[in-house]
């Protein structure tokens, strides 16, 4: 008996979409340990971002934020003195509230990993956490950050002070002095994880932000992934430049995928990119490309050595390679509609999904974390995946991040985020962005945007207008999915890319 159409579609969607990974056979708590200004929150945020990016539902619980909600006005370091009984009662209550929320996250939100961001400097506090986890069947992995380098500590204090709500209205010198005194309050009761006494615990110790590591009793796959990631990150100031290849011949025809060379405008962009990079005066810049002609031709104009990564190749569209979206809609109407229903997990027949790309790009991310200044010349789907990692964008937004042709994005990692600066190089190009459809009917037919060219000047002006400023750190962040219809009109509306 033939299945009804909707049932066939449901089964086809299950076959074509990559499955959601389950990395944990039981929920895992990552528990930070260490004095203030040792980079715990920095590590927590990066780790949370990484795990979510690879598909592990993860949430960070910052006990300091619970304390700020309980005590609206922070006065001074005396709140953190070990003999301040009233403050100690409040701090314990805040930690208990955070643990309660961890349990709710695991049971009600199907979370797999919780990052418990607090000092946890006493054996008593860590025992409470271990007991809490054991009673509920959670695994615990400690991450202790130890630092005795005065220069690193001073820089961390400066960054923490500048971004902490506790010191939002404080004089710089006053804030620095108070924070140093706060650290002294913790030092008197700090008991590091003991290599002998705590040998049955699972943990990693990070010394001086990565100069040395000590790893003990890694229990499972997710903990090994965490260790691998933490051993790759660093805090050295650097910038990562992301650019798509110049406009290609297939871009002009509105065809997806393929391995065509650059169009005349794409060649102009390659020359403009070389001039731009030279003007940036970047020290020890490395250049990465994919194995595809259009990225290699773009890099050749730079006149420097470049490294080719197969992992940076564009998403494989399978049977839809080198077709236009109109042809896909005509020949594969169900596939066309199914991809719109779940663009992140949908896999082209004999091709790839965005989820596949994320896993393919994990080694690239690890190497980017190890490097200093890098220019990555890549493709639209690849650039979206990389941006989603650095800007902490969820999977449902990733396939719709705007990555226009002939634009360079300069990413500069900062204490609690990533500063983004866009540079449009004034070379017109086709628009390859496709909006997220509102309709999600399997038999639906979508209208393609009409051509509406915009000048380079208008393109840059509109691009520059879509920035937002972090309320915690005064750095400019690009609102990549808030550009709306304006960016769609900036380039010539001709092709509809992945």
From TrEMBL:
Indicate the residues that form the catalytic site.
Answer: 245 (tele-phosphohistidine intermediate), 314 (proton donor/acceptor)
Q: Where would one find the signal peptide in this protein?
A: none
Q: Which InterPro entries match?
A: 6Pfruct_kin (IPR003094), 6Phosfructo_kin (IPR013079), His_Pase_superF_clade-1 (IPR013078), His_PPase_superfam (IPR029033), P-loop_NTPase (IPR027417), PG/BPGM_mutase_AS (IPR001345)
Q: Which UniProt keywords apply?
A: ATP-binding, Hydrolase, Kinase, Multifunctional enzyme, Nucleotide-binding, Phosphoprotein, Transferase
Q: Name one GO biological process term.
A: fructose 2,6-bisphosphate metabolic process
A matching Pfam family: 6PF2K
Where does the chain bind substrate? 244-251, 294
> What GO terms fall under cellular component here?
6-phosphofructo-2-kinase/fructose-2,6-biphosphatase complex
Q: What residues does the 6-phosphofructo-2-kinase domain cover?
A: 18-236
TM stretches of this protein: none
Molecular function terms, GO-annotated = 6-phosphofructo-2-kinase activity; ATP binding; fructose-2,6-bisphosphate 2-phosphatase activity
Gene3D superfamilies from the entry?
P-loop containing nucleotide triphosphate hydrolases (3.40.50.300), Phosphoglycerate mutase-like (3.40.50.1240)
Question: What function does the entry list?
Answer: Synthesis and degradation of fructose 2,6-bisphosphate.
Please report which protein family the annotation says this sequence is part of: In the C-terminal section; belongs to the phosphoglycerate mutase family.
How does it associate, per the subunit comment?
A: Homodimer.
Q: Which PANTHER family match?
A: 6-PHOSPHOFRUCTO-2-KINASE/FRUCTOSE-2,6-BISPHOSPHATASE, 6-PHOSPHOFRUCTO-2-KINASE_FRUCTOSE-2,6-BISPHOSPHATASE 1
- What's the name of the protein? 6-phosphofructo-2-kinase domain-containing protein
Q: Give the lineage.
A: Eukaryota, Metazoa, Chordata, Craniata, Vertebrata
């Amino acid at each position: 008996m033939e299945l009804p159409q909707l049932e066939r579609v449901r089964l086809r969607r299950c076959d074509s979409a990559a499955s959601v990974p389950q990395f944990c056979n039981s929920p895992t708590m990552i528990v930070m340990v260490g004095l203030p200004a040792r980079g715990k929150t920095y590590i927590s945020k990066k780790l949370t971002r990484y795990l979510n990016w690879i598909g592990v539902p993860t949430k960070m619980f910052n006990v300091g934020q619970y304390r700020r909600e309980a005590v609206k006005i922070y006065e001074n370091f005396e709140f953190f003195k070990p003999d301040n009984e009233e403050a100690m009662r409040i701090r314990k209550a805040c930690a208990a509230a955070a643990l309660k929320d961890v349990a709710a996250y695991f049971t009600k939100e199907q979370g797999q990993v919780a990052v418990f961001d607090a000092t946890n400097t006493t054996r008593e506090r860590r025992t409470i956490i271990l007991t809490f986890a054991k009673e509920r069947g959670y695994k615990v992995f400690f991450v202790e950050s130890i630092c005795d380098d005065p220069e690193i500590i001073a820089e961390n204090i400066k960054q923490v002070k500048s971004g902490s709500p506790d010191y939002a209205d404080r004089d710089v010198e006053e804030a620095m002095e108070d924070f140093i005194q706060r650290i002294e309050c913790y030092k008197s009761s700090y008991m590091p994880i003991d290599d002998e006494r705590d040998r049955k615990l699972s943990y990693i110790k990070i010394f001086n932000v990565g100069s040395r590591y000590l790893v003990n009793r890694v229990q499972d796959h997710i903990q090994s992934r965490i260790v691998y990631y933490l051993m790759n990150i660093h805090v050295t100031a650097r910038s990562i430049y992301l650019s798509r290849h110049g406009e290609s011949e297939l871009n002009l025809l509105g065809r997806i995928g393929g391995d065509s060379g650059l169009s005349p405008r794409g060649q102009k962009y390659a020359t403009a990119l070389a001039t731009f990079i030279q003007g940036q005066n970047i020290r020890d810049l490395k250049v990465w490309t994919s194995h595809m002609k259009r990225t290699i031709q773009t890099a050749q104009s730079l006149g420097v050595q470049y490294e080719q990564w197969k992992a940076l190749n564009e998403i494989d569209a399978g049977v839809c390679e080198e077709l236009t979206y109109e042809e896909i809609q005509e020949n594969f109407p169900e596939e066309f509609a199914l991809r719109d229903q779940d663009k992140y997990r949908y896999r082209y027949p004999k091709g790839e999904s965005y989820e596949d790309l994320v896993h393919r790009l994990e080694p690239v991310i690890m190497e980017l974390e190890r490097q200093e200044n890098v220019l990555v010349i890549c493709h639209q789907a690849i650039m979206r995946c990389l941006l989603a990692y650095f800007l902490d964008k969820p999977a449902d937004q990733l396939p719709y991040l705007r990555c226009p042709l002939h634009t360079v994005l300069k990413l500069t990692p900062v204490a609690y985020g990533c500063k983004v600066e866009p540079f449009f190089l004034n070379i017109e190009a086709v628009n390859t962005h496709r909006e997220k459809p509102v309709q999600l009917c399997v038999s639906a037919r979508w209208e393609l945007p009409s051509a509406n060219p915009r000048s380079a000047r208008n393109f840059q002006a509109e691009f520059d207008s879509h920035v937002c400023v972090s309320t915690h750190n005064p750095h400019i962040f690009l609102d990549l999915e808030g550009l709306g219809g304006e960016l769609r009109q900036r380039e010539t509306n001709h092709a509809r890319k992945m």
